[in-house]
Specification:
The chain has about 375 residues and is of the alpha/beta class. It has helices at about 15-25, 40-45, 60-85, 105-115, 125-135, 155-165, 210-215, 280-295, 340-355, 375-380, and strands at about 1-10, 30, 50, 95-100, 120-125, 140-145, 150, 170-175, 180-185, 185-195, 195-205, 225-235, 250, 255-260, 265, 300-315, 320-325, 330-335. Helix content is about 30%, strand content about 25%. α1 links the parallel β1 (about 1-10) and β2 (about 30). It binds flavin-adenine dinucleotide. Flavin-adenine dinucleotide binds near residues 15, 45, 47, 177 and 214.
């Protein structure tokens, strides 16, 4: 039987960044992934680092998202230094475009909303948007520039992060499915993974949309009610001399994210399709329609890749972060559409939780207790 200070279930961006952060405390950390680590949602993501809310349901997340964006430069610097690998981080800002006859008033309402949340944004003309983006269609009638937003290349980031974690002494095991949490009365004492008991003083559940499957036993019911929300993506390569893109462009219907190799990643869909990761005709049609509305110059771009990933959704679209109702068990999941952005703040938070330091964010809106049965929670917290 192996013994660790921390066992982390899931080697996506959340598990890996938390492991990297905790390893700086000289703790013995193991990350367990049932597949090759980093090949689920974290691999599929677009890589936008945008704290701007997508819907009113995102509003409680904005302060945490803004903090996480602030942590990004030091987060990627530490990873790149430790791994000696690039993460594709860029901080070029993003452009939001508006099309309707009401474009000006929609843009102004959005500007007020962003400023109230402390998110820097400025109104720009459609012509300026065209110049700053490198391309956007003639139908754009109003635009906003969000200067502090950035991007990463998620596939580079997760590979660099796993290498950086290993260099700090984290043990990363792939093809190692956690089938069960090990319990001793009211305490979680480790996990059972690939038939082996792995003991740990703390277990962190970071299994993305699969977290609900791991925490499925009745006594944990409701702690991590994640579900998969499919997102399809395309990559386009503009014709030589054709439309290039300087920075992220997005509308209410989709987004375009430039990669350093000249490709443009286009997304996405939000679908309740269970654990199916197919790319569908309707999904591709939707993404292409939004793409060509934003940037008609891409009509002759080559379609070079299509893929889909499963976001870890939750009943209120907010992440689930904090101690479970069982001593030694922690939940770090449900990052839904923002897990790449939220990784640095999540990792910092769990370092503070586990080392018993002052917690520097107000994470009460994200408490695991909000979904768990009240009686269950009261019984556990009273002991
Ligand atoms: C199409 C798309 C676009 C996105 N774009 C963005 C974006 O632009 N910006 C942004 O911030 N976010 C974006 N996201 C969201 C982001 O990708 C996720 O929030 C984030 O990757 C979640 O990370 P995670 O580590 O929790 O989950 P995952 O990356 O899914 O990792 C979970 C891991 O747990 C493992 N696992 C599951 N069950 C077990 C088990 N029983 N035992 C061991 N291991 C297990 C899995 O194999 C997996 O590797 C996007 C997501 C999608 C799908």
């Amino acid at each position: 039987m192996s013994t660790y200070d921390i066992a982390i279930i899931g080697g996506g961006i959340i598990g890996a960044s938390t492991a990297f952060e905790l390893a700086a405390e000289k703790l013995r950390v193991i990350v367990l992934d049932r597949r090759e680590p980093g090949r689920e949602a974290s691999w599929a993501a677009a890589g936008m680092l945008s704290p701007a809310p997508d819907s009113p349901r995102d509003l409680p997340l904005a302060p945490f998202a803004v903090q996480s964006l602030r942590l990004y430069p030091q987060f990627v610097a530490a990873i790149e230094e430790s791994a000696g690998k690039a993460t594709g981080y860029a901080r070029d800002g993003a452009i939001e475009v508006f099309f309707s006859t009401e474009a000006g008033s929609e843009r102004d309402a959005r500007l007020r909303e962003l400023r109230q949340l402390g998110i820097a944004a400025e109104a720009i003309s459609a012509d300026t948007a065209r110049e700053m983006a490198g391309a956007t269609g003639a139908e754009v009638h109003a635009a906003l520039f969000l200067p502090h937003e950035g991007t990463v290349e998620p596939r580079l980031l997760i590979d660099a992060l796993l290498a950086a974690a290993r260099n700090r002494g984290v043990e990363v095991r792939g093809s190692c499915e956690v089938s069960k949490l090990a319990r001793d009365g009211d305490r979680c004492t480790g996990v059972v993974a690939a038939g082996e008991k792995i003991s740990a003083a703390h277990v962190i559940l970071a299994a993305g949309c699969f977290s609900s499957q791991v925490a499925s036993e009745p006594s944990l019911s409701g702690l991590a009610p994640t579900r998969p929300v499919r997102g399809q993506m395309l990559a386009l390569r503009p014709k030589t001399g054709g439309a290039g893109l300087q920075r992220v462009v997005r509308s209410q219907r989709g987004y375009l994210v430039p990669r350093k190799d000249g490709r443009i990643v286009a997304g996405s869909t939000l679908e309740e399709a269970g654990f199916e990761k197919q790319v569908t005709a309707a999904g591709v049609a939707k993404i292409l329609a939004a793409t060509l509305e934003m940037c008609p110059e891409l009509a002759d771009a080559e379609l070079v890749e299509m893929w889909a990933g499963l976001r870890p959704g939750t009943p209120d679209d907010l992440p689930i972060l904090g101690p479970a109702n069982v001593a030694g068990l922690w939940i770090a999941t449900g990052h839904y559409r923002n897990g790449i952005l939220l990784a640095p703040a999540t990792a910092k938070l769990f370092r503070e939780f586990i080392t018993g330091s002052n917690v520097s964010f107000d994470v009460r809106p994200f408490s695991p207790s909000r979904f768990a049965g009240r009686e269950l929670w009261a019984a556990q917290t009273a002991t």
